[in-house]
Design a protein that fits this description.
α5 packs parallel to α10. The longest helix is centred in the C-terminal third of the chain and has 43 residues. It contains 14 helices and 13 strands. Strands 1-2-3-5-4 form a five-stranded mixed barrel. Strands 7-6-8-9-10 form a five-stranded parallel beta sheet. The chain has a three-stranded antiparallel beta sheet with strand order 11-12-13, with no helix packed on it. The radius of gyration is 61 Å and the shape is elongated. Among the domains are: 98 residues, Nucleic acid-binding proteins (OB fold (Dihydrolipoamide Acetyltransferase, E2P)); 132 residues, Rossmann fold; 35 residues; 40 residues, no CATH class. It catalyses: Exonucleolytic cleavage in either 5'- to 3'- or 3'- to 5'-direction to yield nucleoside 5'-phosphates. This is Exodeoxyribonuclease 7 large subunit. Pfam families: Exonuc_VII_L, tRNA_anti_2. It comes from Thauera chlorobenzoica.
């Protein structure tokens, strides 16, 4: 179905009448809209959850009041805000007595809050408090477990998003206060569905690579935002990763009024990312002032040292001898030493010659008479050969006698004299007739041969 053509404006047939209508400025339009809105909506109570809360230096408070489906900007002027009996925070559920109006300068619809009262804690804030209380009961936030920051870190690790303004603030602050200090970025998103897991992994990576990258301190930084924007920093696994990190951790998350679980788990909380960089570089920054104070003292000490050395040089100059005189003196000392050395060498050679002559005399006196020793050795050799011949003959005679005796006692010799050896069927030697019975087979060994016999009778006597 085709749409019908648009109807002409009421005054399309009379252009003169249209041109004569008044033309409103934007300011007048916004003023009329504000008056219409304020007259249509009287002062009323509106309930919702606080988000994006900001306290201006003037004392005014700006925030967003939201529910599950919508949100509206709110402004509470200083004269009203200073009368509040409590301190509004992001995530708190409140009821606001407000006037619906329009901020003419921007054309923004907003509520001017006259009064504010708590209406319970928002869902996110309630979850934050539950997690905080549970981890605190475990001792995860125990101050005794917090590690001191190194005064002069060699390098600093930073966990943040590469596009974050907080990272630029940190780098600018470090360059201004400690330009030599190296910074290593461990990138991770600071907002979004997977931000908490990515932040946890970045913290774990920084701790694992600390020795390799040379970092001694870790900064966890992010700019300000609502409680929803900062919710990644309220993750339990991130808090445990911060406590397990081998490096001291400084958190600089949001503005001074923002507070997260990560701030409680860190070793030190800074109100802003810039403050975190200032705390990390505090030692180097302070030492610059200390060096500036030590500079005049060092100058005075060097001056005194130079004066002392100048005086020593003057005294040494007075004791200084002309090189020609020193060479002549050393030449005389050398000639004297040569004479002493020559005399000592001559005396030593004389003593050595005398000892050598005495030793030769003693050697001649102790020289043996070889002819007499040779005759004695020959005589002893002759005696030794004779003794050996005699002993061998005696041993030979004795051996022959023992062999004859042994031959006389041999079993074969006994059998040759008419004796026999009788054995039972089991091969045992019989020594008594009672050892066998009638009819038993007996083996009789003779000097030559063997007889197998049967016992027909036996006598024991």
């Amino acid at each position: 179905m085709n749409p019908s053509p648009a109807a002409p404006p009421p005054d399309a047939e009379n252009p003169a009448r249209t041109l004569s209508a008044p033309v409103l400025s934007v300011s007048e339009l916004n003023r009329l809209a504000r008056e219409a809105l304020e007259s249509a909506l009287p002062l009323l109570w509106v309930g919702g959850e606080i988000s994006n809360l900001t306290r201006a230096a003037s004392g005014h408070v700006y925030f967003t009041l939201k529910d599950a489906n919508a949100q509206v900007r709110c402004a509470m002027w200083r004269n009203r805000a200073q009368l509040l009996p409590f301190r509004p925070e992001n995530g708190m559920r409140v009821e606001a007595r407000a006037l619906a109006t329009l901020y003419e300068a921007r054309g923004d619809y907003q509520l001017n809050v006259e009064a504010l009262r708590p209406a319970g804690i928002g869902a996110l804030f309630e979850a934050f408090n539950r997690l905080k209380n549970r981890l605190a009961a475990e001792g995860l936030f125990d101050p005794a477990g917090r590690r001191p920051l190194p005064r002069f870190p060699r390098a600093i690790g930073i966990v943040s998003s590469p596009q974050a303004a907080a990272l630029r603030d940190v780098l600018v602050t470090l360059h201004r206060r400690a330009p030599h200090l190296a910074a290593v970025l461990y990138p991770a998103p600071v907002q979004g569905a997977d931000a908490a897991a990515r932040l946890r992994d970045a913290v774990a990576t920084a701790g694992r690579r600390a020795r390799q990258d040379g970092i001694e301190l870790l900064l966890l930084v992010r700019g300000g935002g609502s409680i929803e924007d900062l919710w990644a920093f309220n993750d339990e696994s991130l808090a445990r990763a911060l406590r397990a990190c081998p490096l001291p951790v400084v958190s600089g998350i949001g503005h001074e009024t923002d507070f997260t679980i990560a701030d409680l788990a860190a070793d030190l909380r800074a109100p802003t990312p810039t403050s975190a960089a200032e705390l990390a570089s505090a030692g180097w920054h302070a030492v610059r002032a200390e060096l500036a104070a030590l500079e005049p003292r060092l100058g005075r000490a060097i001056g005194r040292r130079l004066e002392t050395l100048a005086q020593r040089l003057d005294r040494a100059t007075l004791r200084l001898i002309h090189p020609r005189q020193r060479l002549e003196r050393e030449r005389e000392r050398l000639a004297l030493a040569a004479r002493h050395l020559r005399a000592a060498l001559e005396r030593r050679l004389e003593r050595a010659a005398l000892r050598c002559a005495r030793a030769g005399t003693r050697l001649d006196a102790a020289r043996p008479e070889l002819a007499s020793y040779r005759q004695r050795v020959d005589a002893l050799g002759l005696r030794l050969r004779q003794a050996m011949h005699t002993q061998a003959e005696l041993r030979r005679v004795r051996l022959a006698a023992l062999a004859a005796h042994l031959q006389h006692l041999a079993p074969e010799a006994v059998l040759a004299r008419g004796y026999a050896i009788a054995r039972d069927p089991h091969g045992r030697v019989l020594r008594s007739a009672a050892e066998v019975e009638n009819g038993a087979t007996v083996s009789v060994q003779l000097a030559r041969g063997r007889l197998d016999t049967s016992v027909i009778g036996h006598h024991d006597d």
